[in-house]
Amino acid sequence: MNQSDYSFSSIPNDIALRIASSLEVPDLSSLSCCSRVWREICGSDCLWEPLVKERWSLLYETVKNPNFKDWQGFYVKQHREKAVQVASVVNLVEHCSRSESIEIVDCLQAIECLQTMQFGFKDVQMLLLKPKLNALLNLIGLLYCLNILRVPAFRIVEALRNSQIADLQVRVQWWKPGRWFYGFHIRNESHSRCVSLEDLAMAKDEEVLAVLQLEATHELLTTARISVINYSTSNLQP
Predict the structure, then answer these.
(1) Backbone angles phi, psi at 29, to 5 degrees
(2) What domains can be seen in the chain, in order of their start residue?
(3) DSSP per position, 94-145
(4) Among the listed ranges 23-27, 75-79, 228-232, which one has the minimum average pLDDT value?
């Protein structure tokens, strides 16, 4: 055993497991690379079974078995499958946003895809709320968590801040249909608003949030667009 392994193994196993259990998956994986001893500790089923249960609770119930082994391998396999699935959403957004913006209807279609694939909050957090992605994809992940999963706003904001994308801004543009007033038709009104992802999560601009809701009127859905401020097509890669 080399000096590094000796130093790490001097920590009692129960303490080492407690340290490892407090880490997020990326940090747990990084810790496992430190030494052979930590690789064995960080691959323990007692660490990975709760992670599977937390991220895919329904799937966990179908495979739960006291004799099941290699929860780490199961987690990695499922994560890779989700990464493949989310690529279809990335491709959809990439195809629809070549003019540096996306229509609301296309945004809602992407959200429906995530719902069909049964993405959970952790899936979105790890695969869509990432700083290297286009802000449109960040926005779609945010709206999915808000409108479909009904994740509390403070948890979404925490995820946005941890990924350092809370301050990213998008511009929402829409037309408010005109109305009839004493026999006269008042023309449609154009609206445009810039808002950060964090402000959307906190519902600080209710009018903009209403435009982005699934229950938005047909007139809004067919006229509204979202564009990224400081848009860069190079950020569309997953």
Answers:
(1) -65, -40
(2) 3-74 (1.20.1280), 80-236 (no CATH)
(3) HHHTTTSEEEHHHHHHHHHHHHHTT--HHHHHHHTS-TTS-HHHHHHHHHII
(4) 228-232
Which is it for the CA torsion 119, 124, 125, 127, positive or negative? positive
Residues 108-141: tens digit of each pLDDT: 889 999 999 989 999 999 999 999 888 999 999 9
Alpha-carbon distance of 18 to 11, in angstroms, equals 11
Would you say the pTM of this structure is higher than 0.85? no
**Cα–Cα distance measured from residue 150 to residue 137, given in angstroms and rounded to the nearest whole number:** 18
As given in the structure block, the two tokens for residue 164 are: 């350092």
**Cβ-proximal residues to 208 (8 Å cutoff; 6+ apart), any chain:** 172, 193, 195, 200
User: Nearest 5°: phi and psi at 178?
Assistant: -70, 165
Residues 4-26 have pLDDT tens digits of 444 445 678 888 889 899 998 98
Q: Are the beta carbons of 60 and 97 closer than 8 angstroms? A: no
What single-letter amino acid sits at 73?
G
